[in-house]
Amino acid sequence: MNPFVIGFDLKTGKSDDIQSTKRYLSDMKGMYFDDKALGDILENENPLVYEFYELDIPNLPSDLLFGTSIVYPGKVGNEYYMTKGHFHEVLETAEVYYTLNGEGYMLMETPEGDWYAAQLKPGKAVYVPPRWAHRSINCGDTPLITFFCFRADAGHDYGTIEEKGYRKLIVEGKEGKPEIIDNPKWNR
Ligand code: ZN
């Protein structure tokens, strides 16, 4: 592999140079508000919800981690497929996401309770400031593909979201449009 140039396909987000990490629906238990809908799907199949290609770069504050994230289209009940979402272990570190394909939202919130839903669409960059948890949500019918970059020692804190959930959810509302609602399962 060329250490200076990495290939990512614009349409699929995939890379021939590195392996992806895959998250199947069975990895997402408890994360959607409709546990019954999730159980019903898992009785018949275990679809791939998202995957990401991330470079194996030394976890140094002086380095940068980057890659692509691909969230596939689909829903659990009326809640769109999404990533688990995370804070950074080094909370005071930021991240940038640039959308290559698809449409959706970057749902963000702080430990103090501020939240923001930033639209993800091709040609737009989303800045995730330090302290903000972030989760990508695919509201379209094609894969949502983003390119991300953050400080290499930031780390991922998935546990806080797994325990508490997000304050907000994005579901398919009336007329098939995305709607932001309070998470009935949010656990303060
Ligand atoms: Zn991150």
Could you give the order of the helices and strands? EHEEEEEEEEEEHEE
Biggest sheet: strand arrangement: 1-2-3-11-6-9
Whole-angstrom Rg? 16 Å
Q: Would you report the number of β strands?
A: 13
Main β-sheet, in a few words? 6 strands, antiparallel
Bound molecules: zinc ion
Q: Given the helix and strand composition, which structural class is it?
A: mainly beta
Mean pLDDT: 95
User: How far is the first residue's CA from the last residue's CA?
Assistant: 45 Å
Percent in strands: 35-45%
What is the molecular shape? globular
Quaternary class? single chain
Helical proportion, percent range: under 10%
Low-confidence segments, ≥5 residues, pLDDT <50? Answer: none
Which structural traits does this protein have?
mainly beta; three-stranded antiparallel beta sheet; binds zinc ion; 188 residues
